[in-house]
Design goal:
Shape: globular
Number of strands: 6
Largest sheet: 6 strands, parallel
Helix content: 25-40%
Distance between the termini: 33 Å
Length: about 240
């Protein structure tokens, strides 16, 4: 589809490249061939405990997403090395990166420890780069954030996860889930008890699913940037005008 090129001279923008500047187009926000496969979600949790409440909450989220018609994968962080301690071809690192590329949306769920997300949660995110060659595993994909805490309700981990989601250029949905005194919210079988906390999780997963349906087909256009089009044009010009190869 052709870009709506604007006359930069008419707008008095001498620092803008007229060939790369464009008006956002409603037409390009409508996919000509919308995807028909089930939305794909990757879920990450931030604890290795045998009875991990972040894992139990993540499993509840997975059940909800599957009930809504999604395809879900949960990454088990057991065995994932610390960032930069091993080469990127480590099997657990490759598993995580392949899942990140496969997914169209993500859920990040961390316990709050010392007023922050856990190192296990951060390590997973740190192993997912902004780009792998020409592929950007997270850019333009949707994200929902959740946390569990042992005390009163808090939002410290959620706030940090939102910062990371923005840094990873993800579309983080407005709603979120924070489960206080998580040890009281799950039964012996590991299922979440009925509560306002549970209903909030349903709300968050429903919103994530809707945002994913809304954006997945047009994600490349949503994250298309003038500065990156210009950078690409300059890189192409340098290659074309090389005196020798």
């Amino acid at each position: 589809m052709r870009r709506a090129v604007v006359s930069v001279a008419r707008l008095d923008l001498p620092n803008v490249d007229a060939e790369l500047f464009e008006r956002p187009s409603m037409e390009r926000l409508v996919s000509a061939a919308p995807a028909r496969h089930a939305p794909r979600f990757l879920l990450l949790y931030g604890s290795l405990r045998e009875r991990s409440f972040s894992r139990l909450l993540t499993e509840e989220a997975a059940r909800l997403l599957e009930a809504m018609g999604g395809e879900v994968r949960i990454f088990n962080p057991t065995g994932l090395p610390l960032p930069d301690s091993v080469p990127a071809d480590h099997p657990k690192v490759q598993e995580l990166r392949e899942l990140a590329q496969w997914a169209e949306g993500m859920v990040w769920c961390s316990p709050e420890r010392h007023g922050a997300m856990t190192g296990i949660m951060k390590a997973q995110i740190d192993w997912i780069p902004l780009s792998i060659g020409a592929v950007r595993p997270t850019q333009g994909k949707t994200l929902a954030v959740m946390e569990v805490s042992g005390g009163s309700q808090s939002f410290n981990a959620l706030n940090q996860l939102r910062v990371l989601g923005r840094w990873m250029r993800m579309l983080t949905i407005p709603n979120q889930s924070s489960v206080a005194k998580a040890f009281l919210e799950f039964d012996e079988a590991g299922r979440m008890k009925p509560s306002a906390y549970y209903e909030r999780v349903v709300d968050v997963m429903e919103e994530l699913f809707k945002f994913t349906l809304l954006t997945r087909d047009v994600a490349p256009y949503l994250v298309d940037r003038y500065s990156e089009r210009r950078e690409s044009a300059e890189a192409l010009s340098k290659r074309v005008n090389q005196r020798s190869i």
